[in-house]
Amino acid sequence: MGRNFTSKDYYDFLLYVAVDAALEAGEEIIRVRKSANIGTRKKLDKSFVTDADINANNIITEKLRSTNIIVVSEEVIDTGDRFNVESFWLLDPLDGTSEFVDGGDEYTVNIALIENEKVVLGVVYVPETKELYFAHKELGSYKYVGDVLKDAEKDPHNDIVRISTKLPYIETEKYTIVASKKNLDEETSFFIELISDGRDVEYKNRSSSLKFCMIAEGTADLYPRFYSLAEWDIAAAHAIVKFAGKNVYEFDGTEVDYNTKYLVAPQFIAK
Fold first, then answer.
1. pTM > 0.85: yes or no
2. CA 20 to 30 Å from 205, out of 107, 114, 182, 221?
């Protein structure tokens, strides 16, 4: 007698495929970093791209094909099909390329699933520190640090949640604001000064998607962003925040949506 698969089973399957893809891409990124030449060049928009970005993109795209869901990536943008389907993968194979090029360790692999303009699943992986964040709408958000597939010895597909920590797992002692390590603009600086007036506030900075992950963990309370990013920069981490019981909002209080014409995310506050 066949098993009756639930909606959660389906998202569990998609999540495991995405986790596997992120981990393999992370291994390739580390391999490129250790090579003699990481192949750095600039794209038309003057941003950096490296062999690690391209190789990670190819690995993830190939892995996700098994799900029969189209893929939209920072490195290969298909702007047609995504308007004619209910769901698509949205990924940034290496978020924080500048951090990677500069030798830092706060770069991530980001994979998200978008359904009807909403984020419903996300994986954020930090190759240097082996921090894995994962979430979907019927599971919640979790974090694991270490070799997750090796440590989940019995059945990695079903064992990842058991060995991981549900988010949020901590509360801040002081009200903590987190913002970009490299791009602290005047509006954000003013906002931090304004909200800090008369309050016991701590300010921290981090790169890439890890600012969102701090909100999901509970190690930060607020992440404001006053200039736009691409949707693939924030979607995966948005899922981690959202299914930890928090969210990412536009300044009018509505949740950030996806699949806009130019794939540009609005200004937002994660809290």
1. yes
2. 114
* List of domains in the chain: 7-166 (3.30.540.10), 175-270 (3.40.190.80)
First to last CA, the chain: 46
Task: Determine whether 103 is exposed, middle or buried from the number of CB atoms within 10 Å of its CB (0-12, 13-18, 19+).
Answer: exposed
Cβ(205)–Cβ(178) below 8 Å: yes
**Is the Cβ–Cβ distance between 119 and 235 less than 8 Å?**
yes
Take residue 198 and report the two structure tokens written for it.
């008369």
In our burial notation (b when 16+ CB lie closer than 10 A, e otherwise), range 229-255 reads bbbbbbbbbbbbbbbbebbbeeeeeee
